[in-house]
Design a protein that fits this description.
single chain; about 400 residues; mainly beta; 1 helix; about 5% helix
Length: about 400
């Protein structure tokens, strides 16, 4: 009888183990409810904001939307709430509300704190998703009541490496959550294919797969409003000099494509250490070569109705700016640029906003990170150096 009893327990465990494990996992990963901290002071503090140094095309203006410490990735909900992530120098996740419709945030909520580089934020089907270095959290029905915030761990099997470990996340037209995994180095050949990739998964964290390979470090991607193709920025490797390699804007047309890292850079430069293994012809070339070391991060297509027609469907890119060019060469990036796409390829790469970098002193007062477009067609830009979010509008 004892053996039969043991066998029965084993059988029951095999039959019902998945649901029992799932319940236990939910119990382990769900967190208690807490109240977000509400802040109103300093939201419109102009200290250190040097708009007079910026150059925009005629008819455009830039204003302060809100101050947010180490403002990184942005996500916008259908109700108009702007969510903001953190990276270095910050461990918090924020929500901003414009209560009176004047396009300036009136209240800032600290939704969560004590996190490890919660750079990535995304909003989907009423829930907020936040990416730490190795974990993904879901804050269910986040906008029902900011005094009752809770989260569930939906995935915790990404690498823990801090080097290129911060993540930008977003949902694609297919309803999948896209999550990149940067290379754990400047240049190396990783045995684990999860590195230097873009992954995707279901909203509940299941079904993870590698969607694109050979991606050194993307901190921004989006989908073309007409073709639905995915475009992503990629930061080129360091230590090849001041002028190479170019950073990249890439286009994905099917799952499984390889974009060259660590073997080929910019579509034409064989890596001096790994380039003899595979020729550049083996890999997908960039849709647009960007400037060297400009550190392109956020990218969004403009499909709104505020900007003039010539800006329709342009890709707007936040170039965070170089950090390791020689003083003689001077910094690159630190600006907003545009790329015009035709037949999947860039045909024009131009400056849109310049002046975050003082070229005479080689010092930057701002570093653009992320871009979102508001329903009225205006554009928000985050700046992690100044701890601010700006709104760009067209007044004619």
């Amino acid at each position: 009888m004892k053996h039969l009893y043991t066998l029965s327990l084993i059988t029951l465990s095999m039959l019902f183990g998945c649901s029992t494990s799932s319940t236990q996992e939910e119990e382990k990963t769900s967190t208690p409810t807490w109240s977000a901290t509400k802040e109103t002071e300093g939201l419109q503090d102009m200290t250190g904001i040097e708009f007079d140094q910026l150059t925009l095309p005629e008819g455009f203006k830039i204003e302060l939307y809100a101050r947010v410490n180490n403002a990184r990735s942005l996500a916008l909900s259908p109700s108009g709430v702007v969510y903001v992530g953190n990276r270095r120098g910050g461990d918090e996740v924020y929500a901003l509300k414009d209560l009176d419709g004047d396009f300036k945030a009136d209240v800032r909520y600290v939704l969560d704190t004590g996190m490890r580089m919660p750079n990535g934020v995304a909003f989907y089907d009423g829930d907020l998703y936040v990416a730490e270095v190795s974990k993904l959290w879901r804050y269910e029905n986040i906008e029902e009541d900011f005094t009752k915030v809770s989260k569930t761990l939906i995935y915790d099997d990404f690498p823990t490496d801090a080097h290129h470990g911060w993540k930008y996340i977003d949902f694609g037209p297919d309803g999948k959550l896209y999550v990149p995994v940067g290379a754990p180095c400047n240049i190396c050949e990783s045995k684990d294919s999860i590195y230097a990739s873009i992954t995707r998964m279901n909203p509940d964290g299941s079904g993870r797969e590698v969607y694109a390979h050979g991606v050194r470090n993307t901190v921004g991607f989006t989908w073309h409003p007409e073709t639905g193709d995915m475009y992503f920025t990629d930061n080129g490797r360091d230590a090849l000099g001041d002028t190479i390699p170019p950073c990249e804007l890439n286009r994905i047309t099917e799952a499984g494509q390889h974009f060259g890292y660590p073997y080929c850079h910019g579509g034409y430069i064989a890596d001096p250490e790994f380039g003899d293994k595979y020729p550049c012809e083996n890999f997908v070339k960039p849709a647009q070569q960007l400037g060297p070391h400009v550190a392109p991060l956020g990218v969004k297509f403009n499909n709104g109705n505020m900007f003039p027609e010539e800006y329709k469907n342009l890709a707007f890119i936040a170039e965070h700016g170089s950090w390791n060019r020689t003083p003689e060469a001077g910094h690159t990036g630190h600006k907003i640029t545009t790329v015009k796409i035709e037949n999947g390829q860039g045909v024009a790469y131009e400056d849109f906003i310049t002046g975050f970098l003082n070229k005479e002193t080689n010092q930057a007062w701002g570093r653009p990170v992320s871009i979102v477009f508001l329903p009225d067609g205006s554009m928000l830009i985050s700046d992690d150096l100044k701890g601010a979010i700006y709104r760009v509008s067209y007044t004619g």
